[in-house]
Structure formats: C-alpha cells, structure tokens
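Quick illustration for those who missed Monday's session on complexes.
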Amino acid sequence: MATHLFTPFRLRDVTLRNRVGVSPMCQYSSPGGLATDWHLVHLGSRAVGGAGIVFVEASAVEPRGRISPDDMGLWSDAHAEPLARIARFVESQGAVPAIQLAHAGRKGSTAAPWKGGGPIPDSEGGWPVVGPSPIPFADGWRVPEPLDTTGIASITRNFRAAAARARDAGFRFLELHAAHGYLLHSFYSPLSNRRTASSQAPHRAGKSICTMSQILSSLMASYSCRRRLPRARIFCQGWPGIRIGARSPSFVTASLIRSKHRSTAS
Ligand SMILES: Cc1cc2nc3c(=O)[nH]c(=O)nc-3n(C[C@H](O)[C@H](O)[C@H](O)COP(=O)(O)O)c2cc1C
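Prediction with flavin mononucleotide bound:
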C-alpha cells in the first residue's frame, strides 16, 4: 500500500523531509529552566534517527508558568543559549528544529511525575499560580489568582519575548501549548473560566478565548508585520499529520512557521 509517511511535506517555506514528528515531551530535567546535554542527546538523537521535525518540550515563558520546578524555560536570553545549540544540531542532521511555548496556569507548581506529581507547597519550591477564575484544578490544588487585564498583557508580552528568542535561537517552527488544562486551555474551558463580561473587561465575551487570541494576534503581529516575516499561519486540529498523537477535542495547535533564510530580517 502506498504511504506518504516518508515523503517530504511542505508548509510555506519549511519543508520536512518526511512526516514523522517528535512530539514535545516534558523531561522535567532543566535546573533553572535551562536545557542541558540531556536535551541535546534526547532531541539530537531523534534528528539523527531521521525524524522530519523535532520539538523541544513545553518551555515556560515565565517562571510562574512552569509545571514543575525543573521545567524547561525560555524566559531569558540565558535560556536561549543552550537551546540554540540544540536547534543547530537538529538542523545539521536534516530535521526541522521546533519548540513549544507554554504556560501551565493553574496546573503549575507541581512535583515531577517521579516525585509523585501533584501540588507542592512554597516550602518545597512551589509558587502561586494564575488562571481565568479562582477555581483549583482539583481538590487540594492551589487556587489560581484570577488574571486581570494587566496580568494578561504581561503574559502576552512574555509569550512574544520567548517567541522572539526562539526565532533568534534558530527554531523554525513554533507551537503554543493550548491543551492539557494549562493556561490557554483554561481560558477556553467553561470548567475553569467563569469570567463574566464585566470581570474581564475590556474583552467582549464572557467565556471567550480572549487570552488565546490576544497572544496569537500579538505573536502574528510581531512575526508577520513588525519583523516582516510573512510566515505566520494558524493551524487547527485536523491539519496534515505532523503532530502525531491523541488530543482532546478542544485542542488547538497554533503554529508559527518561519523561513530559515529570514531569521535576521527586521
Ligand atoms: C513524557 C511525555 C511528555 C509530554 N510532554 C508534552 C509536552 O511538553 N507538550 C505537549 O503538548 N504534549 C506533551 N506530551 C504529549 C505528547 O506530545 C503526545 O501528544 C501524547 O504522548 C500522545 O501521543 P501518543 O499517542 O503518540 O503517545 C507528553 C507526553 C509524554 C509521554
């Protein structure tokens, strides 16, 4: 039977050598949010193995957005440095280097899976979490502080800054984590978003996806207008199978794709 799996796949200026993609997979192994040699080998070996695209795991855009204390981050230039090394190596092996940006929202401040998972107190390195409404993820979990307009704007800026760092570090494909109950997801689920029109002014709709669209439009603006990188596209679930894996029905993948030849354009 004919298969397309090992045929190239083109998305604007980015061509994957095949349709095998390595999903972002949290390793919970980044002290201070920094990528280590573990990540170089873990991701680099997948590129050597022949994958078409290799994603760096969910990378927090601010420390508060980590799931666990040793999550990957991209909230400073120092974080970009070891990631740039990984992007260079992945690309040198013929795979497209990709990264996922994330904010854990009310599911932050938890222990690594092998330490039992679940919420951890400040005394064990935990931190206050944020969300659309003061509703914890589950009994005994932290109650998120509801984000006001200023808080949303600040997180949006952090997504933008991290996206710019990812671009400058050599990543050619950016994904926003908007699933698994993390911050963006929590804004478009009525289970976690009980905001009313007045509580989230100046946004129009009560249970809207305002944060998601704010962040997206902000990133689109910075990628495709200000930076003159007309490479921005949004894909929804159902687009050809690069991201292989089961998703919740409400999952939305938002991907910004850029040309490797335009990284210094301004
Ligand atoms: C160890 C591990 C870490 C994961 N980390 C992430 C992540 O950082 N971001 C994400 O969107 N999904 C993450 N996932 C979900 C995977 O990307 C994938 O969607 C999921 O494993 C379903 O695909 P599968 O059916 O091929 O396993 C993770 C999965 C595993 C097993």
